[in-house]
Amino acid sequence: MITIPQYGSMLSIYLCVLAAIPCMILGLFGKKSKVFNIMISFVVIVSILGIHSLEVFEFFVFLFYECVLVYFYYFFRKRCSSELIYHIIFGLTIFPLICVRFAANHSFYAQYAGFTGLSYMCFKIWQVMIEIHDSKIQKLGLFDFFGLLLFFPSFSSGPVSRYEPFKEDYASSCKGSEYFEFYIIPGTKKIFLGIFYKFAVAFAINTYLISKIPENVSFLHIVLYMYAYTLYLFFDFGGYSQIAIGMGYLMGVKLPENFNKPFLACNMKEFWTRWHMSLSTWFNDYVFGRFVLNNMRNGLFENIHSATRWAYLFTMLIMGLWHGFSIHYIIYGIYEGVLLVITDVYVKSRYYRKVKKKPYYKAMSRIICFQFVAFGMLLFSGRYMNF
Question: Does 193 score more than 60 pLDDT?
């Protein structure tokens, strides 16, 4: 069985670029083909998962299962509105990921449960379900929906696309010269930048720093690992994201940006507007915002400040659980939620309004914020949590 981890090697990137060539040729002639894109994505996804692997079987079962649920609710919602039916079906769409997360904590079952890209497919499915419920999606085209779910450049680890922006970009066409200028050239630049991040910087950090840190625990080793892992995670995942976005450009779709100089953030609220942005904005729109709005409506909280702070805790806990049900992910989620609450209190204080105008404020805030970020990444890694 041969599998090709997406963007895990230069060979993988080369094969993905080859797969995109037919779409690039169409683009240069001012055309796009949804069917063609889906067919290419199927071929690449099967190559990623392994044509004879259990993952491919699970992928097709999952795809069929979720599509039946989504389209059942889509046609049901056109006839009537039932919150009970919505919550039942939404719960059923979540069920496979919950099973996989539970299985991941048991070594015997972990090898048989789930497939690469499952989590990010779930985000797209849930977003579509929510917007069907909110009547924001009036027409759910089969090719548009499949195109969103299967778009291979972002299949494994995002960025997380939204249905309507993806559909518009997916269907739009432009002149060949515009496609070359606004898609091929920027996409190629992003791919090369991503390769530099992932295969030069991240590789060097992992090879010459992380792998050299002894396993025995000492304060110095923990601190070294904390900083090294934080930088490695940024350059590795940031590099992956740049490659994925660049590959999307070659396919004629502008995927959302994922990172915007996150280590220049002055506080944790700003950090989450810069780090893994497609994921954090998804949680902001569909978890945080709804938690605040729904609980203010039902009178659970007396004021917006209380609702907002509980929403931070709830949202980051859910984000931690999304990564996995291991204790270090739960602790990480709670840690990030508490930091956001503290930050919210801080930025509303008189002291903040006074000190933020000082010339040294930004530099000192960035240094301090990075320490909190790095400690959070240490928790996220789970390296020193032998529970």
Answer: yes
Spatial distance between the Cα atoms of 197 and 268, rounded to a whole number of angstroms: 24
Whether residue 291 is found in the same domain as residue 217:
no
CB atoms within 10 A of CB 28: 15
Average pLDDT, the chain: 92
Residue ranges making up the domain that contains 195: 176-250
Among residues 201, 228, 250, the one where a domain terminates is: 250
**CB-based contacts of 370-374 (< 8 A; 24+ apart in sequence):** 370/263, 372/268, 372/339, 373/230, 373/262, 373/263, 373/265, 373/268, 373/271, 373/275, 374/226, 374/227, 374/230
pTM to 2 decimal places: 0.93
Positions marked catalytic? 323
Q: Give me the number of domains the chain comprises.
A: 3
Q: Which of 134, 155, 171 is the endpoint of a domain?
A: 171
Secondary structure (DSSP) of 266-300: SSHHHHTTTSSHHHHHHHIIIIIHHHHHHHHHTTS
Q: State the residue for tokens 């090294």.
A: 228
